[in-house]
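Customer escalation, tier 2.

The customer says the design service returned an amino acid string that "doesn't look like it belongs to this structure." They asked us to rerun it and document both sides in this ticket. The original structure tokens are below, unchanged.
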């Protein structure tokens, strides 16, 4: 359904005030927001159609389960609908909804309990007394397999290796390197200090590098057989 400028005339005064402090919202976003605040059912349907794929994709990245992602999809839009009046318009609607989605995902991850996570020390680099790395799965030369893999498959491999990381490392990697949050923003979202976020991110990246090197070595081995 196409939204029209007159769809929420009773909020016209508030729209003028909001527009002055909402440089992130384009005309269509402002119109959609006014419509949502007016309680128009068609506008809620429009919101789900427009941002539903983004919400589901984000939920699948963080939760690794289609069933959990589907539940998170429902919870995200319920939270959005309930808080639409509180949206301060300091970002685009899409960015706001992504933040709500991430928060819903993290709530589910935390709800799993404080179970003991797998150690990643074996994936971190080891250095000798001179500061040189003791072992690496690959040489300095690029991998023949990596050079021949198309971008879509390489992306799938990277996502698969990220999913092997324990949640605490996987989540900060997703926040920082996939969803583009800054280290400071990631620390705030996770409720940890900047130093802790930097340390965790460095360890996550190092562990992922080792996993990817190992996977490229495995693919090279099978390619040579």
């Amino acid at each position: 359904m196409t939204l029209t400028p007159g769809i929420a005339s009773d909020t016209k005064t508030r729209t003028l005030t909001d527009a002055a402090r909402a440089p992130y919202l384009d005309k269509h976003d402002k119109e959609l927001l006014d419509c949502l605040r007016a309680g128009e059912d068609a506008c809620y349907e429009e919101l789900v159609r427009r941002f539903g794929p983004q919400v589901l994709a984000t939920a699948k990245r963080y939760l690794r389960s289609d069933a959990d992602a589907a539940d998170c999809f429902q919870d995200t839009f319920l939270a959005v609908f309930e808080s639409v009046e509180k949206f301060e318009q300091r970002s685009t609607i899409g960015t706001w909804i992504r933040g709500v989605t991430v928060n819903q995902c993290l709530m589910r991850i935390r709800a799993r309990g404080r179970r003991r996570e797998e150690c990643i020390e074996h994936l971190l680099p080891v250095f000798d007394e001179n500061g040189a790395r003791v072992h690496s799965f690959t040489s300095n030369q690029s991998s023949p397999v990596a050079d021949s893999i198309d971008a879509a498959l390489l992306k799938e491999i990277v996502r698969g290796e990220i999913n092997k990381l324990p949640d605490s490392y996987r989540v900060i990697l997703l926040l920082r390197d996939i969803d583009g949050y800054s280290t400071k923003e990631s620390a705030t979202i996770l409720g940890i200090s900047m130093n802790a976020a930097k340390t965790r991110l460095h360890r996550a990246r190092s562990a992922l590098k080792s996993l990817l090197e190992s996977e490229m070595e495995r693919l090279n081995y099978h390619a040579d057989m």
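Tier 2 assessment: The sequence is consistent with the input. The two ends are 56 Å apart (CA to CA). DSSP finds ten helices and no strands in the chain. Sent an explanation to the customer and offered a walkthrough call.
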